[in-house]
Design goal:
Number of helices: 12
Radius of gyration: 22 Å
CATH topology of the largest domain: TIM Barrel
Number of domains: 2
Shape: globular
Helix content: 25-40%
CATH architecture of the largest domain: Alpha-Beta Barrel
Order of helices and strands: EEEEEHHEHEEEHEHEHEHEHEHEHEHH
Structural class: alpha/beta
Number of strands: 16
Distance between the termini: 45 Å
Largest sheet: 9 strands, parallel
CATH superfamily of the largest domain: Metal-dependent hydrolases
Amino acid sequence: MAPVEAAERHDYFLLTPEPVCCRSCLPADPSRCVEVLASEPLALSSYPVRLRGRWRRLADDDPAGWRWQLRDAQIVATLPRPDDGSGLSRRLVLAAASLFYPAIAAAQGPSEVPRPTESPGRAQHLERARQLIAQTVSVDIHSHAGHVLGSRNPFTSVADPMREGGMALVCLAMVADSPVIRILQEQRRIVANRTPEPGELYAWGRRSFERVTDLVRKQQLAVVTNAATLTEARRRGPAVVISAEGADFLEGRIERLHEAQATWSLRHLQLTHYRVNELGDIQTEAPQQGGLTDFGADVVRTCNRLGIVVDVAHGTLDLVKRAASVTTKPLVLSHTSLSAKPGARSRLISPDHAKIIARTGGVIGIWPPATIFADLAAYAGGIARMVDAVGIDHVGIGSDMLGLLSPAAFDNYRQLPDLAAALLAAGFKPDEAGKILGGNYVRVFTATTG
């Protein structure tokens, strides 16, 4: 169920074979979408659903391009999401009792159904979750927390929610192509809308790094640059890794990477964003450069030497393949989720795409748009599916905090204990949940920075 606008309930939406995060993730073939007009506004589910209504085939000249329509639609059933592999995963078996318990209780009568907040199992998971967080260096691999984006908006608190929820470290990212991208509201997607002037994105990058530094100073956040400062920051309190979403500020000049590392403490670099830049192609636009460019490969090698984590989020499969062949350090793909067959311009990735990251020893951050994951339980399920695809050592949390176009299942660091509890309820052992919550990224960061 894919919404066409942000709202809590919808009487108009699209039915798609796979969950989508935005309009650019819709199937390229319009025959694989069904336009749905519901009989009343519905809360959309990220799980497979069965609908009933009046079926209609649309004319080939329909202005929106859709071929099929369901009118007066009603939800008949919400179904379990099929496992991505063959057979049942271990976590699905372990979680089966909690999935079926509400149905059993309902059969006994409404008065016997316990409220979720009163469930002894939930309380037990939450207590174990708090203990787990206290023993874990928890990390958000991709964040714009504190309203660090923009140039004039006042900052909001980063340290307090981190401290209250137990989030130890966030990769706090400026956005390098902001002056030349825009949001298409009707399509709920982001595109580049003009060619930057020479020097424009370099100047923007400097101002953006200054804004990140200003936020860090005002909120007394520690800046982590290597394993030693990571250990110290864990003892002192909330900390950040200075990050960039897009390397557009380089404008094709490798010496600016040295400058960002030395002057702004850059330690996490995402190569591309929503503009096809000098480093390579992006998922949301048609390929133009065959993947990672020669300059992009040079940037990867230089990051390896300088101790900067290389992030290939937003990059095409061909970009990721070449980056994996060039790098000597683990790669990160900071914010995405798994799809068996991603759309042509989707930000989601296939199992094969994910496995390339895993083979470098890297980590994939799962992001939490509510259009994909309706709640933390669904989000934990999405994390579990990625673990089933690539292994427990290669999955993390990439919230894209304050960077999503839609609401999110995980939208405040105060929710971290609830997320940890959801992972435990999904069948992860405490040591496995600890890897997902931060241990895997700490390993990659330490291997990269020394």
